[in-house]
Amino acid sequence: MKAIVCTKYGPPDVLELQEIENPVPKKNEVMVKVNATAVNSADWRLRKAEPFAVRLFFGFTKPRRGILGGVFAGEIEAVGSDVIRFKVGDQLFGSTGMSLGAYAEYKCLPEDGVIALKPENMSYEEAASVPFGGLTALHFLRKANIQRAQKILVYGASGAVGTAAVQLAKYFGAEVTAVCSTTNVEMLKSLGADRVIDYKMEDFTKSSEKYDVIFDTVGRMSFLPCKKLLKKKGIIILGSSNVSKEVQGLWTSITSSKKVISGMAGEKVDNLLLLKELIELGEIKSVIDRCYGLEQIPDAHSYVEKGHKKGNVVITVG
């Protein structure tokens, strides 16, 4: 099969198209023909080993798992002898988790993994764009216990996590303020944001508005100015963070009634099934900026790394 292999840590050209052997499913696994995957911020950070601590978990000089890619949509071509949930021909979508491997024509996954039948009203490309942003946003919004009529500000609202967070917060009944650049204002209005702030035209940190939840999806928000925008028992979600913000967050949680939530987003099949249900009900839709072919993944990485994508960048593998 064809696969994109990360030969070492570095710029996008370390990703090489290679021909490798097809995987063989174990007794509890399904083998999926990958029709689509996506390139997300986690992918290029892993490719670059950024932060450096990535090397401690994935390999010091190069990733131990050379085929990157954490999300997929495709069709089952074979199943292991013990598989009971799925059958050959089922169309799936989901996350590959720490095993990665979606930058390839085939991928084996455990049947009890974070996988589910693909939403009937989505293409493979649309479905592959859902798990990264959707699962991340849902994880943090649930940890923040988002409630109806609460006010939430989503910073970095036009990215994969941001577009999912806006739609999910609206589903939970919150009043949503989205912060983005000029070119994405109308898109976020179409996703249901109650108010959209163009950060190039307005400094939202100087507003007198107070929020129950502030969700920084991209890690670029100034911590102290945004902390002042919280209500007395408000919550800041650090969807992407660094050591400085982690320290500030811990201190804030210890010394005040305000709370900071951060860390890795857990992936659960129940959350994926909820996303599928909401998609089929029309509550959530995918946002796709660009599509590339498998061999164009280095170009997709270059584009995503610039940090200006709208929603998701999808890879058509077939």
Strand and helix map with partners:
Blueprint lengths: L1 E5 L8 E5 L9 E11 L1 H8 L5 H5 L12 E9 L11 E5 L10 E5 L4 E3 L6 H5 L2 H13 L7 E5 L4 H12 L3 E6 L4 H6 L4 E4 L12 E6 L6 H5 L2 E9 L4 H13 L3 E3 L7 H12 L7 E6 L3 H9 L6 E5 L2
Parallel strand pairs: 8-9, 8-11, 9-10, 11-12, 12-13, 14-15
Antiparallel strand pairs: 1-2, 3-4, 3-6, 3-15, 4-5, 5-7
Helix pairs in contact: 1-10, 4-5
Brief sketch in words of this structure:
This protein has ten helices and 15 strands.
Number of domains: 2
Described by its quaternary structure, the protein is single chain
What's the architecture of the largest domain, going by CATH? Alpha-Beta Complex
List how many beta strands DSSP finds: 15
In DSSP terms (H or I, runs of 4 or more residues), the helix count works out at: 10
Distance between the termini: 11 Å
CATH class category label of the largest domain: Alpha Beta
InterPro entries: ADH-like_N, Chloroplast_QOR, ER, GroES-like_sf, NAD(P)-bd_dom_sf
GO molecular function: oxidoreductase activity
Protein name: NAD(P)-dependent alcohol dehydrogenase
Domain Enoyl reductase (ER): 10-315
